[in-house]
Amino acid sequence: MKNITKIIAAAAMLSACGTQLPDFQTTDDGIEYCFVENNKDSAVAKPGDVWNMDFDYYIHDDSLIYASRDVAQDFLMYAPKGSVADGSVEKGILMMHKGDSAVFRASAEVFFRDVRKMKKLPPYVKPGDRLTFHVRMKDIYDGAEYQRQIDEYNERMEAQELLILHDYVRNEGIAAQPSESGLYKIILTPGTGTGTAAGKKVTVHFVGSFIDGREFDNSYKRNEPFTFQLGAGKSIAGFEEGIATMKKGEKCRLIMPSTLGYGSRGVSGRIPAFATLIFDVELLDF
Predict the structure, then answer these.
(1) Which residue has the higher pLDDT, 23 or 276?
(2) Local confidence band at 140 (pLDDT 50, 70, 90 cut-offs)
(3) In the predicted model, is pLDDT for residue 14 greater than 60?
(4) φ and ψ of 276, to 5 deg
(5) pLDDT at residue 155, rounded to an integer
């Protein structure tokens, strides 16, 4: 039903503009555009403001690639502060007022390279292809005020998370003190020899769980130890910090607040935002 609704809405927008290129206007850098609704008395975004849009795009006019409403109720995107690549759909969106709806046709190559920051074009896109974008500008937020509200929200959520973490530490009778960053480390089995250090390649097994005991990852079950170079930014901060203090053969438990894990973003479908993580780690080799 959702897809049918999207197709009907897309057809209505295209019908309002006409499907022939002469019905579209064209900017100096080749973006074709047509406004379905144009609220010229409403605000346009300043650099750094936040767009709240419905944002769908198609290839060859009718093959849907992405629909923002399938991902989230609000699709938010910062209006660029610096220069925008010629032919980028962002230049078209910069013309939009709050409440506008528009259709744009622009270079697929520019979009994936400069907006999506992809090094290679997707396999379904050929050089020279153009994308059709259906955009409805639901709202425009002042960038500084929006960031202030985000920061306040993050502070509240982090404070709530720390209360839950402190309750967990007290209830579990954990005597270990957190590091300056907030990481708790509990040695389960001592190791031998010297410890690891930044720059060394380490191999570990681990079990990852949430503070309520639910397991989200287990390298033992996959029979796939995790190998990475310490200090190269290949793992989350709490993992890096804890493993850097381990000795070969050591097993330990790392309890880390979200500021050392996946923070306010989480990992879609796997790790919620503001999630305290617990890792039981075994250092196999380095």
Answers:
(1) 276
(2) very high
(3) no
(4) -70, 135
(5) 94
The span from the CA of 280 to the CA of 252, in Å, is 6
The pLDDT-based confidence of 237 (bands split at 50, 70, 90) is very high
CA end-to-end distance (rounded Å), the chain: 54
Place of tokens 């509200």: 149
pLDDT value at residue 285: 84
Amino acid (one-letter) located at 133: F
Is the model's pLDDT at 47 over the cut of 50?
yes
Structure tokens that stand for 117 in this block: 């920051």
In tens, the pLDDT along 52-84 reads: 999 999 997 678 999 998 887 889 999 998 888
Looking up tokens 């306040």 gives 152
Tell the residue number behind the tokens 């769908």, with chain if given.
56
What are the residues whose beta carbons fall under 8 Å from the beta carbon of 110, sequence distance 6 or more?
85, 86, 87, 88, 89
Please give the full DSSP string across the chain, using - where no structure is assigned. Answer: -HHHHHHHHHHHHHHHH-SSGGGSEE-TTS-EEEEEE--TTS-BPPTT-EEEEEEEEEETTTEEEEEGGGT-S-EEEEPPSS---TT-HHHHHTTPBTT-EEEEEEEHHHIIIIIS--SS--TT--TT-EEEEEEEEEEEE-HHHHHHHHHHHHHHHHHHHHHHHHHHHHHTT--PPP-TTS-EEEEEE--EEEE--TT-EEEEEEEEEETTS-EEEEHHHHT--EEEETTTT-S-HHHHHHHTT-EET-EEEEEE-GGGTTTTT-BTTTB-TT--EEEEEEEEE-
